[in-house]
Amino acid sequence: MRSRLMVLGFLLLLFAGILLGVKLTIFSAGASEGQALDAAIAEYKKLHPEVEFEHVNITSGWQEKFSLALMSGDAPDLIAITVPYADYFRSYLIDLAPYVEKHLGISLKEYKDSMYDVVRAYVGKTEDELTYVPLYLTVHSLWVNVDYFEKAGIPYPPLGGRDEPWTWEEFVDVLRTVKKVNKLPAAMSFSYSTERLFNYLAVRGVKVLDENLDLVLDKDPRAKKVLQDFVDLFKEELVPAPEWIAQQSDINDFLGGITAVHWSGSWMCRSIIDIMKQTGKRFAPAYVPKDVDWFGINGGHIFGVVRTGDKKREEEAIKFALWIGQKGLGNDVFNKALLGISPFKGHEIDYGVPEMNEWIPVFQTLIERAPSWIVPVRTCELWARLYDPLRTQIAMVIGDQQNLDDALKNIRKEYETILEELGGKR
Among 397, 400, 152, 398, which Cα is nearest to 261's? Predict the structure, then answer.
């Protein structure tokens, strides 16, 4: 009888704890990231059944929807965003630095020192600040449809019989050949993304902003030629124009067999593995082409706690954020579900997927080659604000709505307007 009463008492206490618990709302972007976050939430609830979650995953137009929610007063408790928007949302977030030692048992310095430098640059504006925790690291790369490349007899770097990356001229010829041999409507998918465009420009030796955050794109004599080469990919139907002028899904085009190459990155691992299992198709990551240099730019998702004014919710949100933002805890759960690269140096994750053992070194080579200048020019509010105007202006050239000269003039005007609104370069 006594044991039954003890069990009953425990259940009553547990039930009361749940009733007195809190509900946290999370906004996230990206379908695969949303699924990985759901996996982490499920694991966290095993440890903390008193915490409820409402997870809102937004796959399109998330920047505008996040902004409206934050400004309207109907803000979520936590947000998961891509790193280019770190500064854009930072002012809405709680500094987590004072809570690291309490919840993780290590100092802030130890926590930050465990991250890759390219990750560390986004989580706080100063060494004493922590407005975000890292979820995962990404790096840009190519993906190739192995079946199409084998049919065309084209080796690819580094897993398909070629050691070195293609030169830009070789790469364009590869696109033409793989398209022709496989009778495809286009050769390569290229997301409507300023980050992807940035990587293309960077490997071809062109900068958008310099280290002083001055716009140099319209002053570089090489830039117009390099941008014209990019536009010509669409004109020659090597890249599907609707991917840039109508936001047609680059992922669906590639995975659906419409194209043979995808300029994307490591974040595609989960989707690729799933398609390989479902269809028997074969895919592999490959090096980006080289011109002046070759490397993949860094990216990823970060996680922040919104300042809502509800102290109990803020406290629980902080605990969850630090749990999912730490290796060996929720971060491993998240990245195992996503097949994401750990944001922590030297930290290995047992994905349970053999292909990842081959793929991870490809991504590591690309990120290790990245020059240091690509980080500071993309960790500022100026870049976050310039992100949409840049891709919009180039898309208008692809859609024959203007020429490159007009696009560069309009980008300059957008830059000057943003500078005025910000009151300087930041």
Answer: 152
Is there a common fold for 22-137+298-368 and 140-296? yes
pLDDT single digits (tens) 85-103: 888 899 999 999 999 999 9
CA–CA dist 234, 239 (Å, integer): 5
Residue 134: which of 204, 77, 83, 185 has the closest Cα?
83
The alpha-helical segments, DSSP class H, found in 214-338 are 223-235, 242-245, 250-255, 269-279, 311-324, 330-338
Mean pLDDT of the chain: 93
Neighbours of 380 (CB within 10 A): 20
Dihedral over Cα of 407, 411, 417, 418: its sign = positive
CATH 3.40.190.10 fits 22-137+298-368, yes or no: yes
What is the number of other CB atoms lying within 10 angstroms of the CB of residue 23?
11
Backbone angles phi, psi at 52, to 5 degrees: -100, 155
Structure tokens belonging to residue 411: 């980008």
Residues sharing a CB contact under 8 Å with residue 54, sequence separation 6 or more, in sequence order: 23, 24, 25, 26
Mean pLDDT across 258-264: 98
Give bridge partners of residue 133 from the DSSP assignment. Answer: 303
Q: Are 261 and 187 in contact (CB under 8 A)?
A: yes
From CA 177, how far away is CA 156, in angstroms rounded?
13
CATH number of 140-296: 3.40.190.10
Residues 418 and 410 sit within 8 Å (Cβ to Cβ): no
pTM of the model: 0.84
For 322, phi then psi, to 5°, come to -70, -30
Task: Give the span between the Cα atoms of 97 and 109, in whole angstroms.
Answer: 10
258 to each of 185, 261, 282, how far by Cα in Å? 6, 9, 14
Angle, vertex CA 34, rays to CA 329 and CA 100, nearest 5:
35
296 contacts 360 by C-beta, under 8 angstroms: no
Domain residue spans of the chain: 22-137+298-368, 140-296
Q: What is the CA radius of gyration of the chain?
A: 23
